Amino acid sequence: MSLEFVLAIYVFLLTVFLGIELINRVPATLHTPLMSATNAIHGIVLIGAMLVAGAADSTLLHALGLIGVILGAGNAVGGFAVTDRMLEMFKKKPVEGQ
Amino acid sequence: MEDFRESVIHIAYIISAALFIIGLKRLSAPASARQGNQLAIGAMTLAFVATLIDPEISTFWTIIIGTLIGGGIGYYLARKVQMTAMPQLVALFNGMGGGTAAVIAVGEFMKFARDGEVSAGEGLSVAFGVTVGCIALTGSLIAGGKLHEIIPSGAIRSPIQMPASILLVLAVGATWVYLLAMGGQETTVWIMFAVALVLGIALVIPIGGGDMPVVVSLLNSMTGLAAAAAGFVLDNQILVIAGALVGASGMLLTVLMSQAMNRPLSNVFFGAFGAAGAGPAAADGEAKPIRQTNADDAAVMLGYAQNVIIVPGYGLAVAQAQHAIRELADELDKRNVNVRYAIHPVAGRMPGHMNVLLAEANVPYDQLFEMEQINGEFQRTDVVLVVGANDVVNPAARTDQSSPIYGMPILNADSAQTIIVMKRSMKPGFAGIENDLFHLDKTRMLFGDAKAALADVIAAVKNV
């Protein structure tokens, strides 16, 4: 195994523990938005698809890259947009009730 | 020059990773959640721009066209879709992410195979990315289809299900062994791709619609892991970090969600919730008596009450009656009736969904109460108005040990003076069980579409 691969495993491991710590005490109200937001964050695969598409040198790879970029961009943009729409509603609670 | 560009990309990725982490932290508290999401958007944008200057990228047209098409579709759906349909939209986006991860793994494998030997690490990452990505893709589409009720939402079971699933798992396992132990070829990866797609369908089809939110959450976590695997394949740290964050937090969220819904994960996958639709409680004989009421009587009960608690359920959301319920609450407020909402943790389709829906209708936050806060108040309440909710007020959860929902925390609606239940029909709820609350002496049933029925009650309240 290459050193890079081993280091990546360390990064992965530490990030897993961090991810669990970060959302440990989240209230049930936020479950839906949080699921939607994390769903958008894994839209980061878009970057991977760009690397495949951009370095493609055969028709098949171009096609795979294009499909990947379309799906990845849909995941990232759509995911963040719908999360923002949800959280916007949470936020515009004015305290003017009193 | 290339060194310089690579340094810039690395620095951008490091900042992006930090922003993702801070964003996720902010997302877990209500006050800072929106800001957290915006930080994550910033992180994504930064990573996107930095990747554009990567020296490995020589063709841009696929990237530009793909981003425009995918981003356009995603943005359009995100803006247009009804808030009630939100869970299935999340499932759809999740499937797209899973598909991306699988496609990346296949594409990179083709390059590895052409350039010579595939190392163990590379082979493992590719196999993981393809398998998990494909399962997440088709699994999410099935889950979304069930939530949208394009696919029958019940648990679809047949005797060949179990053997078929086991066979598919073995087939995927065989492609893994072939790829890792014997180097494998492009064909191996494509077979793995195809079998994993079918496996995703086979795993989700037998699970009932009520458990879909937990399934979507789990698949979300899996897509995160597939993204991390794609990061291993590409030697790309930001993919590893963001993917691992989602994989871990998504897994924890899945556990929290299944706890809130009182559905242990093992039950979700092996239990027969949906299949028990005709279970003992639902089957017990002839119709028990119910007492019907009409809009005028309901208006008198509500209008002359001092304390009213509204229990909203998914039926309210389906009927798009969030605005109507707020209007009714406003009318009652004018008559100095104290109106509160009792929100069960799983009201709607998943935890927190009802809060989003009521927020959309501008229901004041200070009228929304969580179950623990309000459960003691029901006995001092004159009228409870249950709109389109069923299982979350079913006393069987407290008393009937044989009931599939036994042990689920419920709202104590049955301890109020009077209960008005607004419902389309006597059809059982999502869990498919009979509800004794509807047969109590003090319960009045008001049948009809929630929106129309509420409009009638509002008109009647104005006149009493």
Overview of the structural elements:
The complex is a heterodimer of chains A (98) and B (464). With 98 residues, chain A is an all-alpha fold. In chain A, 76% of the residues lie in helices and 0% in strands. Mean pLDDT of chain A is 89; it is low at 93-98. A 6-stranded parallel sheet of chain B has the order 3-2-1-4-5-6. In chain B, 54% of the residues are buried. Chains A and B meet through helix 1, helix 2, helix 3 and helix 4 of A and helix 1, helix 2, helix 3, helix 4 and helix 8 of B.
Explain briefly what this protein structure is:
The complex is a heterodimer of chains A (98) and B (464). Chain A has 98 residues and is mostly helical. Chain A has four helices and no strands.
Q: Any low-confidence stretches of chain A, pLDDT <50, length ≥5?
A: 93-98
Number of strands of chain B: 6
Q: What general form of chain B does the structure show?
A: elongated
User: Nearest-angstrom radius of gyration of chain A?
Assistant: 19 Å
Mean pLDDT of chain A: 89
The structure class of chain B reads alpha/beta
Give the SSE layout:
The complex is a heterodimer of chains A (98) and B (464).
Chain A: H1 3-22, H2 31-41, H3 45-54, H4 59-91
Chain B: H1 2-27, H2 33-52, H3 61-80, H4 86-115, H5 120-147, H6 161-182, H7 186-204, H8 212-234, H9 237-260, H10 265-270, H11 280-283, H12 295-303, E1 307-312, H13 314-318, H14 322-334, E2 338-343, H15 353-360, E3 368-370, H16 371-374, E4 383-387, H17 396-399, E5 418-423, E6 443-447, H18 450-463
Parallel strand pairs in B: 1-2, 1-4, 2-3, 4-5, 5-6
Helix pairs in contact in B: 1-2, 1-9, 4-5, 4-7, 4-8, 5-6, 5-7, 5-8, 6-7, 8-9, 12-18, 14-18
Features:
heterodimer; A: 98 residues; mainly alpha; flat; disordered C terminus; B: 464 residues; alpha/beta; Rossmann fold; 3 domains; six-stranded parallel sheet; 18 helices; 60% helix; elongated
